[in-house]
Each structure stands twice: as structure tokens, then as C-alpha cells.
């Protein structure tokens, strides 16, 4: 407010004295407050300041260039934004200006300012960006494709327990030293689940109608409790007086941010410390018409869509998260999708392998079920690591095998990636986003309109990793996605995820001595089984608990 008032005062001084007003210092308390403003808020603030300046200019009369005229009315306007958008063919964003309320005008000005600040070239860069994305979309990508080199690959699938134990011990030491963070990509809505809530809330009876776990825990609660268990184990191993902290990053989206923050707050962060949970929204990109013009969702709002999971890189910087991690001493960050119920959040084996190899990027993968599984695979293209989409491989190449009889392109990409903080702060920030085209019918002020959304893929940046590694894990222990509603007739539903979790937890109990019969291979016929993440992380420490299990119970629920 002080800065805005000063801006208006300075403008008035210039108008009457034909020169800049002598500089004056702000009170120290105000200066500290200004210094604390997050970079992402600056653009929105500047929009409000420009309105104050414009108001001062308009006071000199309707002839002022800072006023926007429509018929017999004079409206306060952000003149620079109007001029810039008109010059780059996007002036229609303000075509309904005189029909908007003052609040709608402020909201539109703020949205324009935020979109301009999120792109290096502002609105002028949008159409060239779209044209470049469309050109690449139509072109076949070049570069020789090969299977991943053997030097990249290590296994943490139970085939080398000695190596896994070494990595786990190293990882727990890193956690004890406060050098680890985990990030969940949680911005999406559960639209394909037939709901309007963020996916991470699945299972919470107060929020959703979709039944999931017998405990009624949400995915967010399960992930948070896995972190709590690791903190306890790291404390015990290191002999610490208090538990170390694993920073938990939650990437939200524009429509889900407030709901997710409130969800955690209302549930006391599921036992985590509030300060260790960092929420940050991914960015958005405008939606385009087929003519390259930005579409309007309403008369006072530009139609936007999330900028894809690659948006994590810019968002970590834009929201100040990288600085917080560096200040906290974090060196490694694991990133995972919100819809994998088996995810080993902040996996110490994974952290240990990262530390041992000093890799920039370590991607977890699982072998494909068969050559026809519709999943992208990690490959070498043109000598650089990357992910090739299923539609891009082709049947002939997908069927290729190695001398040992395994599929050549067998490292399924399951959106599990770990990074060094140095890589996230350096190469990942310098890498220009590759925008991918999705042609959709987009809701607009004129009804649904054929249009284009642009999104970036999190794996494109892998090609600039100097030390890239693959860690192969067991699918039945670490990956069961939730993509569709249970009654959709499609795979990867809450029901199939529950079956996967139950089978894994029954396996743990049998190994601990519980009298549970072997699974018969028929999906879903065995008892539902759920073990609280607060009891065990990967099946350890269940010997005493196993003695209490009633093998005839259904469900078997151990809290």
C-alpha cells in the first residue's frame, strides 16, 4: 500500500514539476516487508500499481493516453498491457472491458500480469511458441533410438539384497542428516475417477464418495505416514534425540491449491510438522484457438490449463522452494505421481543409490508386462537419455529382444524420478521447455471451441543429465496406478490398486509368520488386507503383529 501510494504521489509530482521527485527512503519496517514479498506475487502487485498510476493520469482528462475509451465512457486501464497485447495480436483479451465490474477488471489485469511474468517473452512469445510446438508435433522426431545402456541399470527388485541393504543404510543416514525431500505431483483433479476432488484426497470419507481403503485413509494420509515412519527409523538408526525432518513438497494446481492446503490443515498435516510441508502451485499456459489467438473462458478471464508435469522445474524456482531446500541442507529430491498407492515415499534405498552413484537423475522403472503394454519406455535417443512414448516406438521395434531374450525396450516409465538439488537448481532451470500439443474442445465464453492446450513433460529434461541412472524395481511392490473409476471397465482403478496393496501386505504378513494362505492367483478373491504405514515401511518389524492376525478375517486391518 505504501509503495502504491508512493507511485501515485511520484506521478503527480512529475505532472506538476516536470521532473522526477527526489528519492526518499521507506521506513525500515516497510522495506523489510517489501523484501519479503515472494517473486510470484510481484507481477500481480505491479498490475495493481499500474492501475493507481493510470488513475492519476486519467485525472488530467479523457485525452490522457493512460485512459481506455469505449463509446462515451472512460475506463481505468493498464495501458502498457493493452498496447503490448494489441501489438502481438492478442488485444481481444480486453474486448469486453467496459462490460466488466471493477473486481473483474482487477482480476483480468492480475491474470494478464501473471501470465506475462511466467513467460520470458510475455504475450509476444505465445504465438511463436504455439507455432513451434505445432511444427514439432507434425514432424517425426529424429535421432537413433537404442535400448538403455547396461551401465545405467541397477536393480532394487529383491534380486540383490546385499546392495539394497547397503543403499538403505546410506539412505537412512542421509535422512538422519536432513538431506532428503520428497515431492508429490498432486495438481490434478480426479476427473477420470468421476469426481471433482483432487486425487490425493481419494479415500477420505468426508470428501469423497469413492470407497478405497478399509482404514478410510486418503492417499495424502498414507504418503504422510510413510514419511513419519522413515523419520522414526532414521532417528533410531542414528541414535538421535529427536526425529529428523524429510521435507514434503506438494505441487498443486490452480484449481486445487486452496482445497489441498485446507485438507492438510484440517487434518493437522497427518502428524507431520506444518513447516516441513511446502505447497506450491504449478504454472498454467493459455489455451489457444486454431488461429493462434488466446481463448477467453469468460469475458473477464483467459482460458488456461496446467503447464504439464514439467512445470515442476519453473514452479520450484518461482515459488522460492529451491531456496528453502538449499537453506535446509537438502541434497536429494524424489518426485512421484499422486496416484500410485504403492509408492515408497522418500525411499531410503533410492536415496542411498543416488548418493552412491552421485547421479544427476535416477529414474525408477519396472519391466513391461509384455511388448504391447501401452507405456512409454526409457531409452537412449541420439546418445542422450529420454522417454519414448508407446505410440512412437512402433510394433516392430517394441517386439525387439536382446541376446538374453528380454525386450530391448523394457524399462517402463512410471513417473518416479529422483534428482540432485544441484541439477534442479542448474541444468533443469536452464533447459527450455519442450511444449507438446493436445487438441481439445475447450469451454469458452462462446461455448465449447476446438482449441489447443500446451503442456511440458517432466522427462524431457533428462537429456541434459550428465550422470543418468535407472533403478529397476518390482512392480508388485512399488507400482499400482489409479487412473480410472472402479466401474469404468478400464484398468488402473481404486479397486485394482486395493487388490495390489492387499496382496503386498498379505505377503509381508506371511513372511513375518502369520498363518495366511498363499494367494490363489484369482484377482480379488483373497481377503482385503491393509497394514498402517505407521507400523511398517516395507514389511519390516511385523513379527509380533503377525501373531495377532486372524486368517479368517476380511478385511485384515492392522492399525
Properties at a glance:
559 residues; eight-stranded mixed sheet; three-stranded antiparallel sheet; 19 helices
How would you characterize this protein structure?
The chain is built from 19 helices and 22 strands. With 559 residues, the chain is of the alpha/beta class. The model is unreliable at 1-9, 11-40 and 42-79 (pLDDT under 50).
- The helix count comes to 19
Which bin fits the share of residues in helices?
Answer: 25-40%
Overall mean pLDDT stands at 86
Taking pLDDT < 50 over at least 5 consecutive residues as the criterion, the unreliable ranges are 1-9, 11-40, 42-79
Shape: globular
Hey, roughly how much beta strand do the residues contain? 15-25%
Which structural class best describes the helix and strand composition? alpha/beta
Radius of gyration over C-alpha positions, nearest whole angstrom: 27 Å
What about the largest sheet?
8 strands, mixed
User: Strands of the largest sheet, in order across it?
Assistant: 4-20-14-17-13-5-6-7
Ends: how far apart?
52 Å
Q: Would you report the number of β strands? A: 22
Q: TL;DR of this structure?
A:
This protein has 559 residues and is an alpha/beta fold. It is 35% helix and 19% strand.
Please render the helix and strand layout as text:
Layout: H1 2-17, H2 28-35, H3 39-58, E1 67-70, E2 73-76, H4 79-87, H5 102-117, H6 126-138, E3 145-146, E4 153-156, H7 161-176, E5 180-185, H8 219-238, E6 247-252, H9 257-266, E7 277-281, E8 284-286, E9 288-289, E10 296-298, E11 301-302, E12 304-306, H10 311-318, H11 321-328, E13 332-337, H12 348-357, E14 361-367, E15 377-381, E16 384-388, H13 390-393, H14 395-398, E17 411-420, H15 421-425, H16 427-430, E18 435-444, E19 447-456, E20 468-473, H17 475-478, H18 494-511, E21 529-531, H19 543-546, E22 556-558
Parallel strand pairs: 4-20, 5-6, 5-13, 6-7, 14-20, 21-22
Antiparallel strand pairs: 1-2, 3-15, 8-12, 9-19, 10-11, 13-17, 14-17, 15-16, 18-19
Amino acid at each position: 500500500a505504501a509503495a502504491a501510494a508512493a507511485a501515485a504521489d511520484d506521478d503527480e509530482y512529475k505532472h506538476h514539476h516536470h521532473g522526477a521527485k527526489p528519492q526518499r527512503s521507506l521506513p525500515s519496517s516497510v522495506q523489510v516487508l517489501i523484501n519479503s514479498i515472494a517473486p510470484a506475487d510481484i507481477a500481480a502487485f505491479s498490475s495493481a500499481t499500474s492501475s493507481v498510476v493510470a488513475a492519476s493520469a486519467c485525472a488530467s482528462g479523457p485525452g490522457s493516453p493512460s485512459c481506455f475509451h469505449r463509446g462515451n465512457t472512460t475506463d481505468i486501464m493498464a495501458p502498457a498491457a493493452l498496447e503490448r497485447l494489441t501489438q502481438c495480436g492478442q488485444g481481444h483479451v480486453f474486448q469486453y472491458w467496459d462490460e466488466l465490474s471493477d473486481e473483474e477488471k482487477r482480476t483480468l489485469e492480475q491474470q494478464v500480469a501473471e501470465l506475462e511474468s511466467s513467460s520470458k517473452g510475455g504475450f509476444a512469445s505465445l504465438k511463436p511458441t504455439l507455432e513451434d510446438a505445432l511444427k514439432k508435433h507434425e514432424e517425426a522426431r529424429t535421432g537413433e533410438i537404442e535400448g538403455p545402456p547396461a551401465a545405467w541399470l541397477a536393480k532394487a527388485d529383491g534380486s540383490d539384497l546385499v546392495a539394497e541393504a547397503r543403499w538403505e543404510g546410506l539412505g537412512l543416514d542421509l535422512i538422519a542428516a536432513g538431506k532428503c525431500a520428497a515431492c508429490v505431483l498432486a495438481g490434478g483433479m480426479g476427473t477420470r475417477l468421476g469426481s471433482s476432488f483432487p486425487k490425493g484426497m481419494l479415500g477420505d470419507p468426508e470428501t469423497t464418495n469413492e470407497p478405497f481403503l478399509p482404514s478410510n485413509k486418503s492417499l495424502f494420509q498414507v504418503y504422510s505416514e510413510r514419511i513419519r515412519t522413515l523419520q522414526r527409523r532414521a532417528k533410531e538408526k542414528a541414535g538421535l534425540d529427536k526425529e529428523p525432518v524429510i521435507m514434503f513438497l506438494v505441487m498443486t494446481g490452480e484449481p486445487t491449491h486452496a482445497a489441498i492446503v485446507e485438507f492438510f490443515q484440517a487434518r493437522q498435516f497427518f502428524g507431520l510438522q506444518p513447516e516441513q510441508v511446502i505447497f506450491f502451485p504449478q504454472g498454467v499456459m493459455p489455451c489457444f484457438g486454431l488461429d493462434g489467438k488466446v481463448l477467453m473462458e469468460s469475458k473477464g478471464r483467459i482460458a488456461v490449463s496446467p503447464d504439464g508435469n514439467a512445470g515442476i522445474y519453473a514452479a520450484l524456482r518461482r515459488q522460492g522452494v529451491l531456496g528453502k531446500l538449499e537453506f535446509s541442507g537438502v541434497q536429494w529430491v524424489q518426485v512421484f505421481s499422486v496416484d500410485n498407492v504403492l509408492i515408497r515415499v522418500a525411499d531410503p534405498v533410492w536415496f542411498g543409490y543416488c548418493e552412491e552413484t552421485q547421479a544427476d537423475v535416477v529414474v525408477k522403472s519396472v519391466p513391461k508386462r509384455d511388448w504391447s503394454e501401452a507405456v512409454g519406455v526409457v531409452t537412449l535417443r541420439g546418445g542422450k537419455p529420454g522417454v519414448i512414448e508407446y505410440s512412437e516406438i512402433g510394433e516392430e521395434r517394441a517386439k525387439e529382444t536382446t541376446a538374453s531374450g528380454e525386450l530391448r525396450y523394457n524399462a517402463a516409465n512410471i513417473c518416479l524420478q529422483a534428482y540432485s538439488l544441484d541439477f534442479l537448481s542448474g541444468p533443469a532451470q536452464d533447459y527450455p521447455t519442450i511444449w507438446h500439443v493436445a487438441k481439445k474442445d475447450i469451454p469458452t465464453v462462446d461455448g465449447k471451441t476446438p482449441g489447443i492446450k500446451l503442456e511440458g513433460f517432466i522427462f524431457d529434461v533428462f537429456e541434459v543429465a550428465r550422470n543418468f541412472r535407472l533403478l529397476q524395481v518390482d512392480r508388485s511392490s512399488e507400482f499400482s496406478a489409479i487412473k480410472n473409476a472402479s466401474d469404468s471397465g478400464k484398468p488402473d482403478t481404486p479397486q485394482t490398486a486395493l487388490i495390489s496393496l492387499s496382496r503386498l501386505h498379505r505377503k509381508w504378513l506371511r513372511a513375518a509368520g502369520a498363518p495366511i494362505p498363499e494367494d490363489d492367483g484369482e484377482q480379488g478373491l483373497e481377503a482385503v488386507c491393509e497394514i498402517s504405514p505407521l507400523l511398517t515401511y516395507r514389511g519390516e518389524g511385523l513379527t509380533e503383529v503377525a501373531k495377532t492376525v486372524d486368517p479368517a478375517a476380511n478385511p485384515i486391518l492392522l492399525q
